[in-house]
Amino acid sequence: MALTAKSGLGGAAIRPPATAAQRRLWAAEQLTGGSGEYNVPVALRLHGPLDTPALLRALHVLLTRHESLRSTFDVGLGGTLRWTARAPEDYPVEQRDFSGESDPVDAAVGYADELARRPFDLGREVLRTGLLRLADDDHILVCVGHHVVFDDWSVAVLFRELEVLYALAVRGVALSSALPALTYGYMDLSLDERRNLTRGRLDTHLSYWQDQLSDAPALRLPAGRPRPATRTAHAGRHRFTLSAELTARLTAVGRCSRATLFMTLLTGYHALLRKWTGQTDITVGTLVTGRTTPEREALITCMVNTLAIRSTAPREATFAQLLGEVRERTLAAFAHQDAPIDEVVARLPDRGGDPLVQVMFEFQNTTMDVAALHGGAGEVPAFLGLRTVAQPFNHLTARYDLELAVGTTPDGLVGSIVYPCDLFTEDTIAALAEDYTAVLHAVASP
Fold first, then answer.
1. Which domains does the chain have, with CATH numbers?
2. What's the burial of 247, exposed, middle or buried (CB within 10 Å: 0-12/13-18/19+)?
């Protein structure tokens, strides 16, 4: 049975420690200067006769069900970051009517962008939602979560459940038992993490990462612009596609080396960076969801961790040899994924300000609905009686020097490179995408 923050001796609230992922993201937020860098905004345009009271009831049930969406964080005695949850009744939904504006769409989209950029005070809120009316049959639903409790998996869970709850609310069905009860909650997650990482396992994991990364050099990316003293996080995005035929050939290439498509695409990224930087010692970050059990898969909260995949093959190595190395390092990294990245970095020698992970790779094969919400390929959530389309934001931020994401579709692969405009021009990133595609075509040639 899931424990809650309200259970405790004599009715006193238990305030569990934040998880490792939440500590890392809370600390990162304190360093951003209110840039909104760790905001995770998603929005849907809703065309048709929206039942606003039904949607508000569905949102209330969702907030009641997932206490993480009502959470707040503060530093307690001893410097421990602790979590608590507000009552569902205290959570507001911002409703704005733009139908009277001369250009309702422009006014509403501008307000949605403001919601996406607005910094969070994590001592007060981690999620804000807005319902923006453009006309009787035209609305925008905006959800902006802080990454401290919101990851891509969480976004998918939120909208899957909201679809169900809204449909039942429209039909007048009671929502109290509309979804299976959660048997695992935030308290369980926090306690499990503390138990698992205090039995000697954490030291074992950290020792592995020390051995792997203690002398990893920084990447010297050939940025088209000088690195500014203060990063603005303003970003651009470049999209590209890879055909179904190429995808099939890449899958076959990987199979010959007992490697997954993820490993093959990641190796292609390593090969590209070797060519682009002239270095043979390359470290690329990738994310793991932390959803290691069915109970965790049902939660809305951030469990992601970053794994640093390093390759050191000699310059004359073939792609097959590089793939073999990346495969072995990836398998070992996943076996040691429970070590939080911030604790890994703390165990490494001082890097003189150079981050361990400057570039990221993400393979999206299970959350394409989330990619669609950000303007990529896939299906957007469907609401009963409405036509829904993704509503893009003008606000985009970059947390790394390069973030390459590749996702599967029925027609092949779609790629996206997010980059800081402080460092790179659009032409440079377009050339980078072309080079990556060329590398993949070369290794997949018969």
1. 9-192 (3.30.559.10), 205-367+394-444 (3.30.559.30)
2. buried
Q: For 244-278, how does the pLDDT look when each residue is reduced to its tens digit (9 = 90+)? A: 999 999 999 999 999 999 999 999 999 999 999 99
Q: What is the pLDDT of residues 426-438, one digit of tens each?
A: 999 999 999 999 9
Nearest residue to 394 via CA among 34, 41, 32: 41
pLDDT score recorded for residue 330: 98
Instruction: Tell me which residue of 177, 155, 159, 182 sits closest to 55, measured CA to CA.
Output: 159
- Give, as one character, the DSSP assignment of residue 197: T
CA distance 362 to 288: 9
pTM attached to this predicted model: 0.88
Q: Could you tell me how many residues make up the chain?
A: 446
* Pair type for strands 402-409 and 359-364: parallel
Can you give the pLDDT at residue 233?
66
Q: Which tokens is 78 given?
A: 């001893």
Quick one: residue 384, left, alpha or beta (phi over 0 = left, psi -120 to 50 = alpha)?
beta
- Give the C-alpha distances (Å, rounded to integers) separating 319 from 212, 244, 292, 434, 444: 21, 21, 31, 18, 10
Query: Torsion angle of alpha carbons 129, 133, 136, 139, nearest 10°?
Result: -50
Give the count of alpha carbons within 13 A of 435, CB side only: 16
Give the span between the Cα atoms of 419 and 359, in whole angstroms.
10
pLDDT at 100 over 50: yes
Which of the four pLDDT bands, split at 50, 70 and 90, describes residue 355?
very high
Asked if 147 and 40 touch (Cβ cutoff 8 Å), the reply is yes
Neighbours of 229 (CB within 10 A): 5
**Token couple for 374:** 């950000």
Name the CA radius of gyration of the chain, rounded.
Answer: 23
Dihedral through CA 330, CA 333, CA 334, CA 340, nearest 10? -140
Per-residue pLDDT tens over the stretch 198-235: 667 888 999 999 999 999 999 999 887 777 766 666 88
Q: What percentage of the chain reaches a pLDDT higher than 70?
A: 92
> Of the candidates 22, 264, 64, which has an alpha carbon nearest to the alpha carbon of residue 179?
64
